[in-house]
Amino acid sequence: MWSSPFITTPSSVSQIMLRVLIALIPGIALYVWYFGPAILVSIALASITALATEAVMLKLRQRPLKPFLTDNSALITGWLLALSIPALAPWWLVVVGTAFGIAVAKHLYGGLGNNPFNPAMVGYAVLIVSFPAHMTHWLTPHPLGDIVLTFSEQMNYMFNGVLPAGLTLDALTMATPLDTLKTQLHLGLAANDIRDMPIYGRLAGKGSEMVSIGFAIGGLYLIYTRVINWLIPAVFLGALFVISGTFHLLDPVHYVTPMFHWFAGAAMLGAFFIYTDPVGGATTFKGRIIYASGAALITYLIRAFGGFPDGIAFAALLMNICVPLIDIWTQPRVFGKKGGGK
Question: Does residue 336 lie within any of the structural domains?
Answer without folding.
Answer: no
